[in-house]
Amino acid sequence: MVSIPSEIRQVMQDAECLFSESQVERAIDNMAAGISEHLADKNPIVFSVMNGGMVLTGKLVTKLGFPLEISYLHATRYGETEAEPDPEPKLQWRTRPHQTLKGRNILIVDDIYDEGATLGAIVDHFKTEEVGDIHIAVLVDKRHNRKARPDIIPDYIGLQCEDRYVFGYGMDYKGYWRNAPGVYAVKGR
Questions:
Q1: N or C: which end of the chain has fewer CB within 10 A?
Q2: In the chain, what are the domain boundaries?
Q3: Is CATH 3.90.320.10 what the domain over 6-185 is classified as, yes or no?
Q4: What is the pTM (predicted TM-score) of this model?
Q5: pLDDT digit string (tens) for 148-157?
Q6: What is the Cα–Cα distance from 167 to 15, expressed in whole angstroms?
Q7: What is the 3-state secondary structure (H, E, C) of 82-127?
Q8: Which residue from 13, 40, 51, 15 is spatially nearest to 164, judged by alpha carbons?
């Protein structure tokens, strides 16, 4: 049996809760209201960006009272490290969109808008598929001046947070705590 590293348990014990479960749920409700207002008659395909967007997508789509399709994609960037992301991202697809996308309106759902290079590369991919309108929903927008693509601005933002290492509600700490019932910041980071 492989045990959970003590660091993983400790990070949660030491973490600061930035947004409680009820605050996150209210933010998701507000996002759903905005999305419903703008996309209810647009026949969108909602794409969850795996793995981080999974929790938000699941919560969000149950609050959208109109017909839509749900799918997912999984993409990462070559050369990405926590310290130094690739300035010219090359998308590595683990799972590509499989629907016919031409003319369809797209809603991309992701956990966090940090530097945004991967999200920008995903948007660029959808543009090559000649989709209709592209909309972006993120649970957390991290406030800082390191955005890789100033032209990529999420349409629906649940919460804004300071520039810290955050986890919970889909965001992870070393692969763990995506299931944390709130948004937490790692102590000292």
A1: N
A2: 6-185
A3: no
A4: 0.90
A5: 888 899 999 9
A6: 9
A7: CCCCCCCCCEEEEECCCCCCCCCCEEEEEEEECCCHHHHHHHHHHH
A8: 15
